[in-house]
Amino acid sequence: MACNSCTTDSGGQPKGCKNNGTCGTDSCNKLTVFDWLANMSLPSGEKPFDWVEVRFKNGRKEYYKNIENLTLSIGDVVATQASSGHDIGMVTLTGELVRVQMKRKSISETPDELLKIYRKASQKDIDIWSDARDREEPMKVKARQFAIDLKLEMKISDIEFQGDASKATFYYTAEDRVDFRELIKVFAREFKTRIEMKQVGFRQEAARLGGIGSCGRELCCSTWLTDFRSVSTSAARYQQLSLNPQKLAGQCGKLKCCLNYELDTYLDALKSFPKTEIKLQTEKGTAVCQKTDIFKGHMWYAYEGEWMNWHKITTDQANEIIGLNKKNQKVSSLEEYASELINDSKNEFENAVGQDSLTRFDSPKQNHKRKNKRNNKNRRKPQNAKNNAK
């Protein structure tokens, strides 16, 4: 999605509004909720919900109470209460949908410490905020160099200034605990502002920074995913994926969150499958499972000692053989079950325009024999004409 003020540059390249996150239409921000109740009026006598959702840098959202009864709409820049001073954010949601979001995130409407909105931001507030945002990127480069000089095992991933430029929050990732007391002194002396260090996980870092995944789309964690569930390698095993860390890991270095999306469907399908470690006892020998096809409901077994010859049977047939084995009965062989399977019909398409030919664009080769015969005929014609003239 792009906001209304985004345009295209020469050559059709996206130009962008370049508002550094202060886009008025709020369409190019991350984790934006569509207000489908905006055009619906409240019943008579009902007061609108007095809580407002405010978005800050990189999808960070907080909920504030509109005590002053300000007339706010989506896209308004407001000054909000902070621990010291004030912060500047953008209104992303108002009305009854804020109540739904707060309930989904388990945020109480009567908290111990009530955060409120002071006012709509003035032009002076926006100028100070924009200047602070412009300082963040060069500060991040220096901060990373300071951490390297102090030999700290940490990575400064992002910096966020408070709206009044009185405090800077440094987000960092680290494998273990880090003693950054000396680093804070260096930061305070160099940047001359209050410093707050906040450690985030690798998934949260990827969500803040954003990016493009291997699927070609924006990262789920930076667009719509807010709850990070643990992902284990068993999710890949159930879906019969190759345990390749380079393919299963996302930009955060952890297992991809999308491995959990279809896991429940695979688990439901596997309920009808017998366990792969159960061996089939036949009169011909003991068969061991080699492969399963969850989509078609087929299983491949091979006799011990004949590992190259696989026999395909259905899950119902495998369960039937296992049931007979529990009654101390054996089937004659797997071949009688495998022969009952109906071969899948394959659609054969005619090659009408030669789309399967790899040499269809090559120039046709000339037949040298025909060319030589044609040259010999041309040579004989003048001699015959001379003879006729005599």
Task: Give a description of the structure.
With 390 residues, this protein is of the alpha+beta class. The protein folds into four domains: 31-121, no CATH class; 127-200, GMP Synthetase, Chain A, domain 3 (2-Layer Sandwich); 218-269, no CATH class; 280-338, no CATH class. It has eleven helices and twelve strands. α2 (123-149) crosses α3 (181-191). The chain starts with 50 loop residues before the first strand and ends with a helix. The model is unreliable at 1-5 and 19-27 (pLDDT under 50).
Find the count of extended strands (DSSP E, 2+ residues). Answer: 12
Radius of gyration: 35 Å
Class by alpha and beta content = alpha+beta
| Amount of helix | 25-40%
Strand arrangement across the biggest beta sheet? 2-1-4-3-5
Q: Mean pLDDT, rounded to whole units?
A: 82
Strand content: 15-25%
The tally of domains stands at 4
Number of helices: 11
Largest sheet: 5 strands, antiparallel
User: Which residues sit in consecutive blocks of at least 5 with pLDDT less than 50?
Assistant: 1-5, 19-27
Summarize, please.
This protein is α+β, with helices and mostly antiparallel strands.
In terms of topology, how is this protein built?
Layout (H helix, E strand, L loop, with lengths): L50 E5 L5 E5 L11 E5 L4 E8 L2 H9 L12 E4 L2 H27 L5 E7 L5 E7 L7 H11 L2 E6 L2 H8 L10 H4 L9 H6 L6 H4 L14 H8 L9 E2 L4 E8 L4 E6 L6 E5 H12 L8 H4 L29 H22 L1
Helix pairs in contact: 2-3
